[in-house]
Amino acid sequence: MKSTFTKSALCLVVMQSLFACNSDGEQESSVTQAQASAPAVSAAASSSVSPLSDPTNSAGWVLNQDISDEFNGTEIDRNKWLVQGDNGDYYIWKGRAPSQFVPHNVLVEDGFLRLRSQWEPDYQFANENYADGSVDAKYGEHEGKPMPVTTAAIVSHKRFLNGYMEVRSKAIDAAMTSAFWAIGYQSEIDVYEQMGKPKIQGNIREDYIKSTVHDWRPPAKRPTWAFQHSEKYPFRVADEFHVYAAEWGEDYFKLFTDGKEIYSVTKAELGDRWVLTNPMEIWLDSEIFHWLGMPHAEELPATFDVDYVRVWQKPQTNLLQRQFFGFEGPILFEQNPRPLKLVPENSENDDYQKFWHIDESSAKQASIVYDNFNKGKRSLKISAASTATSQLTKVVAPAGALSLPAGELTVSVSIWILPETQLSQLSILLADNNQSLDFDLSKVTKGKWVTLSQTIQRSNPSSASDTLSIQLDSKNITAGASTIYIDDIEIQQVK
Question: Can you give the pLDDT at residue 387?
Protein backbone atom coordinates (compact mmCIF):
# COMPACT_ATOMS: atom_id res chain seq x y z
CA MET A 1 0.00 0.00 0.00
CA LYS A 2 1.41 3.35 -1.02
CA SER A 3 2.15 5.88 1.76
CA THR A 4 -0.65 8.47 2.08
CA PHE A 5 1.80 11.36 2.57
CA THR A 6 1.54 13.39 -0.64
CA LYS A 7 3.30 16.22 -2.43
CA SER A 8 0.72 18.67 -1.10
CA ALA A 9 1.74 17.72 2.43
CA LEU A 10 5.33 18.29 1.45
CA CYS A 11 4.44 21.81 0.33
CA LEU A 12 3.10 22.44 3.81
CA VAL A 13 6.42 21.29 5.23
CA VAL A 14 8.28 23.76 3.06
CA MET A 15 6.00 26.63 4.05
CA GLN A 16 6.52 25.87 7.72
CA SER A 17 10.30 25.65 7.51
CA LEU A 18 12.96 28.30 7.08
CA PHE A 19 13.43 27.42 3.45
CA ALA A 20 11.29 27.98 0.39
CA CYS A 21 11.42 26.71 -3.19
CA ASN A 22 11.47 28.75 -6.35
CA SER A 23 9.38 27.99 -9.42
CA ASP A 24 11.89 25.39 -10.57
CA GLY A 25 11.76 23.49 -7.30
CA GLU A 26 15.21 24.62 -6.26
CA GLN A 27 15.94 25.68 -2.71
CA GLU A 28 16.18 29.36 -1.90
CA SER A 29 17.60 30.49 1.41
CA SER A 30 18.74 33.62 3.21
CA VAL A 31 22.05 31.91 3.88
CA THR A 32 24.58 30.82 1.27
CA GLN A 33 24.80 27.26 0.06
CA ALA A 34 28.03 26.90 2.04
CA GLN A 35 25.74 26.50 5.06
CA ALA A 36 23.42 23.94 3.50
CA SER A 37 24.83 20.84 5.22
CA ALA A 38 24.07 22.14 8.70
CA PRO A 39 21.19 24.58 8.33
CA ALA A 40 19.89 26.55 11.26
CA VAL A 41 16.39 25.06 11.40
CA SER A 42 13.55 26.80 13.18
CA ALA A 43 12.29 24.86 16.17
CA ALA A 44 8.78 25.95 15.17
CA ALA A 45 9.05 24.15 11.83
CA SER A 46 7.15 20.87 11.69
CA SER A 47 5.84 18.29 9.23
CA SER A 48 2.78 16.12 8.92
CA VAL A 49 4.81 12.91 9.15
CA SER A 50 7.06 11.61 11.89
CA PRO A 51 9.58 8.77 12.12
CA LEU A 52 7.84 5.42 12.58
CA SER A 53 9.89 4.90 15.76
CA ASP A 54 8.64 8.25 17.14
CA PRO A 55 5.07 8.64 15.85
CA THR A 56 4.25 11.58 18.13
CA ASN A 57 7.53 13.30 17.24
CA SER A 58 8.44 13.71 20.90
CA ALA A 59 12.06 14.34 19.86
CA GLY A 60 11.14 17.41 17.79
CA TRP A 61 12.33 16.11 14.41
CA VAL A 62 12.13 18.44 11.39
CA LEU A 63 11.84 16.97 7.89
CA ASN A 64 14.77 17.80 5.61
CA GLN A 65 12.94 18.50 2.36
CA ASP A 66 16.12 18.50 0.24
CA ILE A 67 16.80 14.79 0.82
CA SER A 68 13.26 13.46 1.37
CA ASP A 69 11.14 12.14 -1.50
CA GLU A 70 7.69 10.50 -1.74
CA PHE A 71 8.20 9.46 -5.41
CA ASN A 72 4.66 10.53 -6.33
CA GLY A 73 5.52 11.89 -9.77
CA THR A 74 6.12 10.26 -13.14
CA GLU A 75 9.91 10.60 -13.21
CA ILE A 76 12.78 11.03 -10.79
CA ASP A 77 13.30 14.53 -9.41
CA ARG A 78 16.73 15.42 -10.75
CA ASN A 79 16.82 18.56 -8.60
CA LYS A 80 17.18 16.17 -5.65
CA TRP A 81 18.87 13.15 -7.17
CA LEU A 82 21.85 12.38 -9.36
CA VAL A 83 20.99 9.45 -11.62
CA GLN A 84 24.03 7.31 -12.29
CA GLY A 85 24.77 7.23 -16.01
CA ASP A 86 22.80 10.35 -16.97
CA ASN A 87 24.46 11.88 -20.06
CA GLY A 88 27.17 9.26 -19.68
CA ASP A 89 28.27 10.72 -16.33
CA TYR A 90 29.05 8.51 -13.35
CA TYR A 91 29.81 9.66 -9.83
CA ILE A 92 32.64 7.66 -8.18
CA TRP A 93 31.88 4.40 -10.05
CA LYS A 94 29.71 2.70 -12.66
CA GLY A 95 28.55 -0.03 -10.29
CA ARG A 96 30.01 -3.31 -9.12
CA ALA A 97 30.99 -5.38 -12.15
CA PRO A 98 29.78 -7.37 -13.92
CA SER A 99 26.60 -5.30 -13.46
CA GLN A 100 26.51 -1.64 -14.53
CA PHE A 101 24.29 1.27 -13.52
CA VAL A 102 22.24 2.72 -16.39
CA PRO A 103 19.78 5.65 -16.24
CA HIS A 104 16.91 3.94 -18.09
CA ASN A 105 16.52 1.55 -15.15
CA VAL A 106 15.47 4.37 -12.79
CA LEU A 107 11.67 4.41 -12.86
CA VAL A 108 9.03 6.36 -10.92
CA GLU A 109 5.55 4.90 -11.32
CA ASP A 110 2.43 4.29 -9.24
CA GLY A 111 3.91 6.32 -6.40
CA PHE A 112 7.08 4.23 -6.10
CA LEU A 113 10.71 4.48 -7.05
CA ARG A 114 11.61 1.29 -8.92
CA LEU A 115 15.29 0.53 -9.47
CA ARG A 116 15.23 -2.12 -12.15
CA SER A 117 17.81 -4.77 -12.90
CA GLN A 118 17.54 -6.56 -16.22
CA TRP A 119 19.28 -8.86 -18.65
CA GLU A 120 20.39 -6.69 -21.60
CA PRO A 121 22.63 -8.57 -24.04
CA ASP A 122 22.46 -5.70 -26.56
CA TYR A 123 23.62 -3.03 -24.10
CA GLN A 124 27.07 -1.53 -24.77
CA PHE A 125 28.82 -2.04 -21.43
CA ALA A 126 31.77 0.06 -20.33
CA ASN A 127 34.98 -1.31 -21.81
CA GLU A 128 36.91 -1.28 -18.57
CA ASN A 129 37.60 -3.36 -15.53
CA TYR A 130 36.38 -2.70 -12.02
CA ALA A 131 38.83 -3.51 -9.22
CA ASP A 132 37.27 -4.52 -5.89
CA GLY A 133 39.86 -5.77 -3.42
CA SER A 134 41.31 -8.97 -4.87
CA VAL A 135 38.71 -9.07 -7.67
CA ASP A 136 39.39 -7.52 -11.06
CA ALA A 137 36.07 -7.80 -12.92
CA LYS A 138 34.78 -6.62 -16.29
CA TYR A 139 31.43 -4.95 -16.91
CA GLY A 140 28.96 -7.23 -18.69
CA GLU A 141 31.14 -10.31 -18.32
CA HIS A 142 31.88 -12.91 -15.64
CA GLU A 143 34.66 -15.49 -15.84
CA GLY A 144 34.94 -14.98 -19.59
CA LYS A 145 31.22 -15.45 -20.26
CA PRO A 146 28.54 -12.84 -20.91
CA MET A 147 26.77 -11.50 -17.82
CA PRO A 148 24.81 -8.60 -19.39
CA VAL A 149 23.06 -7.28 -16.28
CA THR A 150 22.17 -3.61 -16.06
CA THR A 151 20.92 -2.05 -12.87
CA ALA A 152 20.38 1.40 -11.32
CA ALA A 153 21.46 3.90 -8.68
CA ILE A 154 20.48 7.37 -7.46
CA VAL A 155 22.43 9.69 -5.14
CA SER A 156 21.13 12.74 -3.24
CA HIS A 157 22.67 16.03 -4.36
CA LYS A 158 22.65 17.37 -0.80
CA ARG A 159 24.36 16.00 2.29
CA PHE A 160 23.23 16.11 5.90
CA LEU A 161 24.98 15.90 9.27
CA ASN A 162 23.24 13.86 12.00
CA GLY A 163 19.60 12.90 11.77
CA TYR A 164 17.10 10.10 11.29
CA MET A 165 16.87 8.48 7.84
CA GLU A 166 14.03 6.13 6.95
CA VAL A 167 12.78 4.22 3.91
CA ARG A 168 9.81 1.99 3.25
CA SER A 169 11.03 -0.55 0.74
CA LYS A 170 10.88 -4.05 -0.69
CA ALA A 171 14.05 -5.78 -1.86
CA ILE A 172 14.57 -7.05 -5.39
CA ASP A 173 13.55 -10.73 -5.62
CA ALA A 174 16.70 -11.85 -7.39
CA ALA A 175 20.41 -12.42 -6.78
CA MET A 176 20.88 -8.66 -6.80
CA THR A 177 21.38 -6.39 -3.82
CA SER A 178 19.00 -3.72 -2.61
CA ALA A 179 20.92 -1.10 -0.66
CA PHE A 180 20.09 2.01 1.35
CA TRP A 181 23.29 3.76 2.38
CA ALA A 182 25.03 7.07 2.91
CA ILE A 183 28.57 8.24 2.28
CA GLY A 184 30.62 11.33 3.06
CA TYR A 185 34.13 12.45 3.93
CA GLN A 186 36.06 9.39 5.15
CA SER A 187 32.93 7.58 6.33
CA GLU A 188 29.98 5.47 5.15
CA ILE A 189 26.76 4.10 6.67
CA ASP A 190 25.17 1.05 5.04
CA VAL A 191 21.74 1.05 6.68
CA TYR A 192 21.06 -2.21 4.87
CA GLU A 193 22.29 -4.44 2.08
CA GLN A 194 19.61 -6.99 1.22
CA MET A 195 19.18 -9.77 -1.34
CA GLY A 196 15.98 -11.60 -2.22
CA LYS A 197 17.53 -14.72 -3.78
CA PRO A 198 21.25 -15.18 -3.07
CA LYS A 199 22.68 -18.17 -4.93
CA ILE A 200 25.32 -18.75 -2.24
CA GLN A 201 24.63 -18.56 1.48
CA GLY A 202 26.93 -15.92 2.92
CA ASN A 203 26.86 -12.65 4.82
CA ILE A 204 23.59 -11.50 3.18
CA ARG A 205 20.54 -13.78 3.18
CA GLU A 206 16.94 -13.52 2.05
CA ASP A 207 15.69 -13.09 5.64
CA TYR A 208 18.57 -11.05 7.03
CA ILE A 209 19.74 -7.53 7.72
CA LYS A 210 23.39 -6.58 7.30
CA SER A 211 24.35 -3.06 8.37
CA THR A 212 27.87 -1.67 8.26
CA VAL A 213 29.75 1.53 9.02
CA HIS A 214 32.93 1.96 6.95
CA ASP A 215 36.08 3.89 7.83
CA TRP A 216 37.46 5.55 4.69
CA ARG A 217 40.36 7.32 6.35
CA PRO A 218 43.55 6.73 4.31
CA PRO A 219 44.95 4.26 3.43
CA ALA A 220 41.32 3.04 3.19
CA LYS A 221 42.20 -0.54 2.29
CA ARG A 222 39.61 -3.30 2.57
CA PRO A 223 38.24 -4.43 4.91
CA THR A 224 37.24 -0.86 5.80
CA TRP A 225 34.34 -1.60 8.12
CA ALA A 226 34.44 0.10 11.51
CA PHE A 227 31.52 -1.87 12.95
CA GLN A 228 28.72 -4.13 11.74
CA HIS A 229 25.37 -5.54 12.78
CA SER A 230 23.64 -8.60 11.33
CA GLU A 231 20.32 -10.06 12.40
CA LYS A 232 17.82 -12.68 11.18
CA TYR A 233 14.33 -11.42 10.34
CA PRO A 234 11.07 -13.37 10.68
CA PHE A 235 10.32 -12.49 7.02
CA ARG A 236 11.83 -12.48 3.55
CA VAL A 237 12.96 -8.98 2.63
CA ALA A 238 11.61 -9.37 -0.94
CA ASP A 239 8.10 -10.51 0.02
CA GLU A 240 6.59 -7.24 1.23
CA PHE A 241 7.34 -3.67 2.22
CA HIS A 242 9.01 -2.91 5.56
CA VAL A 243 10.31 0.29 7.13
CA TYR A 244 14.06 0.51 7.78
CA ALA A 245 15.79 3.38 9.54
CA ALA A 246 18.97 4.64 11.18
CA GLU A 247 19.34 7.39 13.76
CA TRP A 248 22.74 9.06 13.75
CA GLY A 249 23.66 11.48 16.51
CA GLU A 250 26.85 13.27 17.50
CA ASP A 251 27.82 10.40 19.79
CA TYR A 252 25.48 7.47 19.07
CA PHE A 253 24.07 5.31 16.27
CA LYS A 254 20.84 3.27 16.21
CA LEU A 255 19.09 0.94 13.76
CA PHE A 256 15.34 0.35 13.47
CA THR A 257 13.08 -2.08 11.62
CA ASP A 258 9.35 -1.36 11.41
CA GLY A 259 9.73 1.27 14.13
CA LYS A 260 11.47 -1.05 16.60
CA GLU A 261 15.06 -0.41 17.70
CA ILE A 262 17.22 -3.43 16.89
CA TYR A 263 20.75 -2.12 17.56
CA SER A 264 22.52 0.80 19.22
CA VAL A 265 26.12 1.78 19.90
CA THR A 266 27.87 4.90 21.24
CA LYS A 267 31.01 6.80 20.37
CA ALA A 268 32.41 5.99 23.80
CA GLU A 269 31.96 2.26 23.16
CA LEU A 270 33.65 2.39 19.74
CA GLY A 271 36.60 4.66 20.54
CA ASP A 272 38.76 5.14 17.45
CA ARG A 273 36.26 3.21 15.31
CA TRP A 274 33.77 6.10 15.60
CA VAL A 275 34.04 7.87 12.24
CA LEU A 276 30.56 9.41 11.84
CA THR A 277 31.55 13.07 12.07
CA ASN A 278 30.88 14.50 8.59
CA PRO A 279 27.83 15.17 6.36
CA MET A 280 26.67 12.35 4.10
CA GLU A 281 24.68 11.91 0.90
CA ILE A 282 22.10 9.13 0.48
CA TRP A 283 22.38 6.32 -2.07
CA LEU A 284 19.74 3.83 -3.24
CA ASP A 285 21.06 1.15 -5.61
CA SER A 286 21.31 -2.46 -6.71
CA GLU A 287 24.46 -4.45 -7.52
CA ILE A 288 25.81 -7.94 -8.11
CA PHE A 289 27.81 -9.35 -5.21
CA HIS A 290 29.93 -12.03 -6.88
CA TRP A 291 30.52 -13.86 -3.59
CA LEU A 292 26.76 -14.48 -3.28
CA GLY A 293 26.33 -15.80 -6.81
CA MET A 294 25.13 -14.49 -10.15
CA PRO A 295 21.54 -13.69 -11.12
CA HIS A 296 19.93 -15.86 -13.79
CA ALA A 297 18.44 -14.41 -16.94
CA GLU A 298 15.03 -15.91 -16.15
CA GLU A 299 14.69 -14.03 -12.82
CA LEU A 300 15.14 -10.66 -14.52
CA PRO A 301 13.83 -8.03 -14.98
CA ALA A 302 13.05 -7.34 -11.33
CA THR A 303 12.92 -4.19 -9.24
CA PHE A 304 14.03 -2.80 -5.89
CA ASP A 305 10.95 -0.84 -4.84
CA VAL A 306 11.00 2.22 -2.56
CA ASP A 307 7.82 3.89 -1.29
CA TYR A 308 9.62 6.87 0.23
CA VAL A 309 12.89 8.11 1.67
CA ARG A 310 12.70 10.62 4.52
CA VAL A 311 15.37 12.39 6.51
CA TRP A 312 14.65 14.28 9.71
CA GLN A 313 17.02 16.44 11.73
CA LYS A 314 16.99 18.26 15.06
CA PRO A 315 16.74 22.07 15.07
CA GLN A 316 20.13 23.80 15.04
CA THR A 317 20.93 27.36 16.14
CA ASN A 318 24.62 27.21 15.17
CA LEU A 319 25.15 29.32 12.02
CA LEU A 320 28.34 27.47 11.04
CA GLN A 321 28.94 24.12 9.37
CA ARG A 322 29.64 22.05 12.45
CA GLN A 323 31.96 19.50 10.85
CA PHE A 324 34.32 22.17 9.53
CA PHE A 325 34.44 24.44 12.56
CA GLY A 326 34.79 21.32 14.70
CA PHE A 327 37.90 20.38 12.61
CA GLU A 328 36.37 17.07 11.47
CA GLY A 329 36.41 17.58 7.72
CA PRO A 330 35.88 19.97 4.81
CA ILE A 331 33.41 22.80 4.50
CA LEU A 332 30.94 22.10 1.69
CA PHE A 333 29.97 24.58 -1.03
CA GLU A 334 26.97 22.67 -2.33
CA GLN A 335 25.98 25.35 -4.82
CA ASN A 336 28.95 24.09 -6.88
CA PRO A 337 28.91 20.75 -8.73
CA ARG A 338 30.21 17.77 -6.80
CA PRO A 339 33.27 16.38 -8.65
CA LEU A 340 32.46 13.03 -10.28
CA LYS A 341 35.68 11.52 -8.93
CA LEU A 342 35.22 12.73 -5.35
CA VAL A 343 35.91 9.53 -3.41
CA PRO A 344 35.36 9.69 0.38
CA GLU A 345 39.07 9.54 1.24
CA ASN A 346 39.82 12.62 -0.90
CA SER A 347 41.27 15.54 1.09
CA GLU A 348 41.99 17.91 -1.79
CA ASN A 349 40.58 21.41 -2.09
CA ASP A 350 38.15 21.91 -4.96
CA ASP A 351 35.10 24.07 -5.65
CA TYR A 352 32.84 21.67 -3.73
CA GLN A 353 34.89 21.00 -0.59
CA LYS A 354 37.60 23.09 1.03
CA PHE A 355 39.83 22.69 4.08
CA TRP A 356 41.49 24.95 6.65
CA HIS A 357 44.51 26.78 5.26
CA ILE A 358 47.69 26.59 7.34
CA ASP A 359 50.64 28.27 5.65
CA GLU A 360 54.13 26.78 5.66
CA SER A 361 55.32 28.87 8.58
CA SER A 362 52.24 28.20 10.73
CA ALA A 363 52.33 24.47 9.93
CA LYS A 364 55.39 24.20 12.17
CA GLN A 365 53.13 25.00 15.14
CA ALA A 366 49.58 24.09 14.05
CA SER A 367 47.93 20.87 12.87
CA ILE A 368 44.59 19.05 13.03
CA VAL A 369 45.03 16.02 15.29
CA TYR A 370 43.22 13.01 16.81
CA ASP A 371 44.95 12.92 20.21
CA ASN A 372 42.53 15.27 22.02
CA PHE A 373 39.03 16.50 21.13
CA ASN A 374 35.86 17.94 22.59
CA LYS A 375 32.82 16.60 20.67
CA GLY A 376 34.00 14.83 17.54
CA LYS A 377 37.27 12.99 16.90
CA ARG A 378 39.63 15.80 15.86
CA SER A 379 40.74 19.21 17.06
CA LEU A 380 43.22 21.94 16.14
CA LYS A 381 46.48 21.72 18.07
CA ILE A 382 48.86 24.68 18.32
CA SER A 383 52.22 24.28 20.03
CA ALA A 384 54.39 27.40 20.05
CA ALA A 385 57.20 28.95 22.06
CA SER A 386 57.81 32.48 23.33
CA THR A 387 60.03 34.56 21.07
CA ALA A 388 61.76 37.92 21.29
CA THR A 389 59.71 39.22 18.36
CA SER A 390 56.04 38.75 17.54
CA GLN A 391 55.35 35.65 15.41
CA LEU A 392 51.83 34.76 14.33
CA THR A 393 50.46 31.25 13.93
CA LYS A 394 47.44 31.55 11.63
CA VAL A 395 44.78 29.00 10.66
CA VAL A 396 42.36 30.41 8.06
CA ALA A 397 38.96 29.23 6.81
CA PRO A 398 38.32 29.55 3.05
CA ALA A 399 36.59 32.58 1.60
CA GLY A 400 32.83 32.23 1.86
CA ALA A 401 32.99 30.06 4.95
CA LEU A 402 30.78 32.48 6.89
CA SER A 403 27.23 33.51 6.13
CA LEU A 404 26.30 35.65 9.11
CA PRO A 405 23.36 38.01 9.48
CA ALA A 406 23.55 41.53 10.80
CA GLY A 407 22.74 41.95 14.46
CA GLU A 408 23.91 40.59 17.77
CA LEU A 409 25.82 37.30 17.66
CA THR A 410 27.51 35.06 20.23
CA VAL A 411 30.85 33.52 19.23
CA SER A 412 32.07 30.56 21.30
CA VAL A 413 35.10 28.29 21.16
CA SER A 414 36.12 25.23 23.18
CA ILE A 415 39.74 25.05 24.33
CA TRP A 416 41.99 22.69 26.28
CA ILE A 417 45.25 24.12 27.63
CA LEU A 418 48.24 21.99 28.60
CA PRO A 419 48.93 22.50 32.35
CA GLU A 420 52.42 23.95 31.92
CA THR A 421 51.28 26.40 29.22
CA GLN A 422 52.01 30.11 29.77
CA LEU A 423 49.64 31.54 27.14
CA SER A 424 47.57 34.65 27.88
CA GLN A 425 45.49 35.21 24.72
CA LEU A 426 43.96 33.55 21.67
CA SER A 427 42.34 35.60 18.88
CA ILE A 428 39.58 34.85 16.38
CA LEU A 429 39.25 37.32 13.49
CA LEU A 430 36.09 37.87 11.44
CA ALA A 431 37.08 39.25 8.04
CA ASP A 432 33.98 41.19 6.92
CA ASN A 433 33.52 42.80 10.29
CA ASN A 434 37.24 43.54 10.53
CA GLN A 435 36.91 42.49 14.15
CA SER A 436 39.29 40.61 16.43
CA LEU A 437 37.81 38.62 19.31
CA ASP A 438 40.57 38.31 21.90
CA PHE A 439 39.96 35.54 24.42
CA ASP A 440 41.69 35.99 27.77
CA LEU A 441 43.26 32.67 28.79
CA SER A 442 45.05 33.82 31.93
CA LYS A 443 42.35 32.53 34.29
CA VAL A 444 41.11 29.54 32.29
CA THR A 445 41.25 26.17 34.06
CA LYS A 446 43.95 24.03 32.46
CA GLY A 447 43.89 20.32 31.64
CA LYS A 448 40.18 20.18 30.70
CA TRP A 449 37.85 21.36 27.96
CA VAL A 450 36.44 24.83 28.62
CA THR A 451 34.07 26.86 26.43
CA LEU A 452 34.66 30.62 26.13
CA SER A 453 32.27 33.05 24.46
CA GLN A 454 31.87 36.69 23.44
CA THR A 455 28.94 38.67 22.09
CA ILE A 456 29.47 40.93 19.09
CA GLN A 457 27.38 43.34 17.04
CA ARG A 458 27.42 43.28 13.22
CA SER A 459 26.01 46.14 11.16
CA ASN A 460 25.95 44.19 7.87
CA PRO A 461 25.47 40.56 6.83
CA SER A 462 28.37 38.56 5.42
CA SER A 463 29.59 39.10 1.89
CA ALA A 464 30.35 36.15 -0.38
CA SER A 465 34.02 36.28 0.70
CA ASP A 466 33.56 36.45 4.47
CA THR A 467 35.88 34.22 6.47
CA LEU A 468 37.34 33.51 9.89
CA SER A 469 40.89 32.99 11.10
CA ILE A 470 42.45 31.76 14.33
CA GLN A 471 45.61 33.52 15.47
CA LEU A 472 48.11 32.88 18.23
CA ASP A 473 50.85 35.50 18.76
CA SER A 474 54.09 34.30 20.33
CA LYS A 475 54.27 37.59 22.28
CA ASN A 476 51.34 36.26 24.37
CA ILE A 477 53.44 33.30 25.55
CA THR A 478 55.17 34.51 28.68
CA ALA A 479 57.74 31.73 28.93
CA GLY A 480 58.82 28.44 27.34
CA ALA A 481 56.55 26.39 25.10
CA SER A 482 52.76 26.40 25.17
CA THR A 483 50.19 23.95 23.78
CA ILE A 484 46.50 24.60 23.25
CA TYR A 485 43.76 22.52 21.60
CA ILE A 486 40.87 24.33 19.87
CA ASP A 487 37.55 22.76 18.93
CA ASP A 488 33.91 23.45 18.10
CA ILE A 489 33.79 27.11 17.11
CA GLU A 490 30.13 28.17 17.06
CA ILE A 491 28.24 31.36 16.18
CA GLN A 492 24.64 31.86 17.21
CA GLN A 493 22.23 34.73 16.71
CA VAL A 494 21.03 36.45 19.87
CA LYS A 495 17.24 36.63 19.79
Answer: 82
